[in-house]
C-alpha cells in the first residue's frame, strides 16, 4: 500500500502545531488586564490569558461568571472597559468584528429556513462578494469537513438538531477564521446527541487545526474535549490547566467544587485526620470504603472511620455519604463492579493514599 494520509489524532495534532507556530511564536489569543463593566456589574474583572495556536481551549464556569462577555469582547461585539486583546500578535481591542480574523458559533444558530444548506453556508461569502465558483467550492469543503457533504440541497427543517448545529459550524468554518469562538454550541441538544457532537466537534477541530475557544458551564464537556481549561468565577479566572491538572490539582476550593464533586475536609476534621490545619480536597473515587474496621490502613494511606448516612445508586457507580467520627463529611464513589454493598447506617473505614488529599487555598 502507498503511504496513507495521516488519520491518527497524534499526527494531526503535531502537524497543526508545526504549521501554526510558523507565525513567529505569538499566541493565537493574548488577553491582558481585560475588564468589562455594565454599570455597577463587574462582568469581567481582570483577565490575563495566552492561548497558543491550534489549541482546543475551554472557558468553564457557572452562569454569570463572565465567559460570554470575554468571548464577545474577543469577537468585537463588546468593547473592553480596560485591557487589551491580541490576535496572533496584532492588537484588535478597538477593531470592528469584521476586521478580526475570528468567527462565532452561538447556541441559537439561526439558519435561514428558506435557503438550502449550501446557500446558508455560502451566505457570508456572498455578502463579501466572493465569486460564485469559489463560493461553491469553499462551501462544499466546509460541508465535507462537518460530514454533511451530501446534504447541501436540503432545507434546515429537513435536518436533525445535530445536523443543523453542524451547518452552523460549516457557516463559520467557510470563512477560514484563525480562531473559532463557540458559546455553549451544544446547549440545545439532548444529552445523547450532545455526547456524539462532543466527539465530532473535537475531531473536526483536529482536522482543521483552527484554535477553538469553547464556552461551557458543563464540567464533563470541558474535561472531555479540551487541551486546556480556564475555570471562571465572578469575572475572574481561578485556574488555567489541562483537564488532568484542573481535576487532580484544583487551585482553589471553588475549582475543587465546580469541577467534580466538592469533597473537602477542614477545621477539626482535617486536623484530626490529616494532622494539619487547612482545607483539603479528596476526590470521591480515590477513597476506598471498607466495613471491616479492624483492618489497619496500608502504608502510605490516610484513613478515617465514620457512619454511612446515605447511599445513592447511579447504575455504573454507587455513592456513599459518610459522616466522619473526627468531624466532617465525605462522599465516596465506588465502581459497581460487583453487587452494590449496602453499608447504609453502618460503620465503615475510609482510606486513601496520602497524595490524594491535598491542600487547597481557602479563598478563591
Ligand atoms: P456567563 O456567560 O458566564 O453566563 P456573562 O458574561 O453572560 O456570563 O455575564 C456576566 C455578568 O455580566 C452577569 O452578571 C450578567 O448579568 C452581566 N451582563 C452580561 N451582559 C450584560 C449587559 N449587556 N448588560 C448588563 N449586564 C450584563
Ligand atoms: Mg454565557
UniProtKB/TrEMBL annotation:
Identification of the protein by name: ABC transporter ATP-binding protein
UniProt-listed SMART domains: AAA
Keywords, sorted A to Z: ATP-binding, Cell membrane, Membrane, Nucleotide-binding, Translocase, Transport
GO cellular component, as recorded: ATP-binding cassette (ABC) transporter complex
High-level lineage: Bacteria, Bacillati, Actinomycetota, Actinomycetes, Pseudonocardiales
Keyword flag Transmembrane helix: no
Residue span of region Disordered: 1-24
Keyword Membrane on entry: yes
Biased composition (Polar residues): 1-11
GO molecular function: ABC-type putrescine transporter activity; ATP binding; ATP hydrolysis activity
Entry superkingdom: Bacteria
Stretches assigned to the ABC transporter domain: 29-259
Pfam families, sorted: ABC_tran, TOBE_2
Amino acid at each position: 500500500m502507498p503511504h496513507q494520509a495521516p488519520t491518527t489524532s497524534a499526527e494531526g495534532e503535531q502537524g497543526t502545531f508545526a504549521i501554526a507556530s510558523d507565525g513567529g511564536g505569538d499566541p493565537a489569543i493574548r488577553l491582558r488586564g481585560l475588564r468589562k463593566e455594565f454599570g455597577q456589574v463587574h462582568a469581567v474583572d481582570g483577565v490575563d490569558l495566552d492561548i497558543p495556536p491550534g489549541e482546543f481551549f475551554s472557558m468553564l464556569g457557572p452562569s454569570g461568571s463572565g465567559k460570554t462577555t470575554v468571548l464577545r469582547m474577543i469577537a468585537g461585539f463588546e468593547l473592553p472597559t480596560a485591557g487589551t486583546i491580541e490576535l496572533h500578535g496584532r492588537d484588535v481591542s478597538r477593531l470592528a468584528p469584521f476586521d478580526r480574523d475570528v468567527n462565532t458559533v452561538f447556541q441559537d444558530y439561526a439558519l435561514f429556513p428558506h435557503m438550502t444548506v449550501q446557500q446558508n453556508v455560502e451566505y457570508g461569502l456572498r455578502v463579501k462578494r466572493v465569486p460564485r465558483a469559489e463560493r461553491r467550492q469553499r462551501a462544499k469543503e466546509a460541508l465535507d469537513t462537518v460530514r454533511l457533504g451530501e446534504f447541501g440541497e436540503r432545507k434546515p427543517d429537513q435536518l436533525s438538531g445535530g445536523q443543523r448545529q453542524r451547518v452552523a459550524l460549516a457557516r463559520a468554518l467557510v470563512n477560514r477564521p484563525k480562531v473559532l469562538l463557540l458559546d455553549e454550541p451544544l446547549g440545545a441538544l439532548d444529552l445523547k446527541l450532545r455526547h456524539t457532537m462532543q466527539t465530532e466537534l473535537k475531531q473536526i477541530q483536529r482536522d482543521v487545526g483552527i484554535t477553538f475557544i469553547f464556552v461551557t458551564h458543563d464540567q464533563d464537556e470541558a474535561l472531555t474535549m479540551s487541551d486546556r481549561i480556564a475555570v471562571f468565577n465572578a469575572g475572574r479566572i481561578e485556574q488555567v490547566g489541562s483537564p488532568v491538572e484542573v481535576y487532580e490539582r484544583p487551585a482553589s476550593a471553588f475549582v475543587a467544587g465546580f469541577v467534580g464533586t466538592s469533597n473537602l475536609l477542614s477545621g477539626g476534621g482535617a486536623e484530626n485526620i490529616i494532622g494539619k490545619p487547612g482545607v483539603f480536597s479528596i476526590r470521591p473515587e480515590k477513597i476506598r470504603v471498607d466495613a471491616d474496621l479492624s483492618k489497619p490502613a496500608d502504608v502510605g494511606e490516610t484513613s478515617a472511620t465514620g457512619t454511612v448516612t446515605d447511599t445513592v445508586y447511579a447504575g455504573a457507580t454507587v455513592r456513599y455519604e459518610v459522616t466522619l467520627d473526627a468531624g466532617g463529611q465525605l462522599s465516596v464513589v465506588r465502581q459497581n463492579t460487583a453487587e452494590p454493598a449496602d453499608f447504609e447506617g453502618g460503620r465503615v473505614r475510609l482510606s486513601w493514599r496520602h497524595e490524594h488529599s491535598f491542600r487547597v487555598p481557602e479563598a478563591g
